[in-house]
Amino acid sequence: MEPHPLSSGDLVAFVAAFEAGTIHGASDALGLTPSAVTKRVQSLERRTGATLFDRGRLGLRPTASAQRLYPPAKEALAALRAAHESLGDGTADGLVLAASHTIGEYLLPAWIAAFRGRDPEVRPRIDVINSPGVLLAVRERRAAIGFVEGRDPLDGLDVLTVQRDEIVAVVAHGHRWESRRSVAARELHDEPWLAREEGSGTRAVAAAALAAAGVTLSPMLEVASTESVKRALRTGGFALLSRLAIAADVRAGTLHALPVRGLDLARELRAVRLRDRHRPRHQTAFWSFLASLEPR
User: Fold this and answer.
1) What class is the 166-267 domain?
2) What are the tens digits of pLDDT across the range 168-184?
């Protein structure tokens, strides 16, 4: 049995490609050339004996093998970072954050930039994972502060509401619903549903609202990033996504958002931390900064 069956470098490239949906997007995220990312993904495919992506003009479509590999790959990379941090300061002196996808991709970068304007010495590190993973990281002290968007129990944690959001039905430009201002919940049966993966906070809120309204849907496609869902919408169907996450696309005219009549899709985006008495200065200062964002 091989002691190191998979290369961490290959896994990093795979995860970046999975989340970005394109080789160029992954290369931008990692600071590598597209050729280097391609070689790492191909190396992982050779090592596993599995085809991980179908390549097409719209980018990369993860295969069933990729869908199975992505969650443990993310966990493995997080474990490697935790192992490294155990030899250094870790969360004790730094500002290690864990954020769900909507918050980590669309809100947290601007918050960090604003906070660093006040405290330029801070060097935050952010892990973007789904909401259950965020809560686990906080409870296991692998992250000092987490950001969640689902409906998981928050017992034993300090909680701040940092933003309010709404899940909406989303279609691409040219879809037959584009001229409409809303859609009824019962009409969702008429179109293919392109969904986020199980464990996604966005999907959890949507699933709870659908169940409460007696609407049962089965996704035609499940992917692990909002950007991948957006790209998939070009081929048809609808998604249930955060209004915050699609704001720029709606302004650009590439996507159209429709409130869903008959569903309660409002939600709160929250920051969480353990109830410790003593914290490093950066953690205390950032929590105070987040409190200033709390909607009234």
Assistant:
1) alpha beta
2) 999 999 999 999 999 99
In Å, how far from its chain's centre is CA 188?
24
Q: Residue with structure tokens 């003009």?
A: 57
Domain edges within the chain: 8-69, 84-163+268-291, 166-267
Distance CA 62, CA 133 (A): 21
Strand, coil or helix: what is 172?
strand
In DSSP terms, 161 is beta-bridged to: 270
Closest CA to 50 of 1, 6, 2: 6
Instruction: Tell whether pTM > 0.90.
Output: no
List pLDDT tens digits, range 219-264. 998 887 888 899 999 999 999 999 999 999 999 999 999 999 999 9
Domain 84-163+268-291 belongs to what architecture?
3-Layer(aba) Sandwich (3.40)
Tokens of 101: 């996808």
CB 138 within 8 A of CB 157: yes
For 129-151, the DSSP string reads --HHHHHHHHHTTS-SEEEE-S-
CA atoms within 13 A on the CB side of 236: 5
3-state secondary structure 53-86: EEEECCEEEECHHHHHHHHHHHHHHHHHHHHHHC
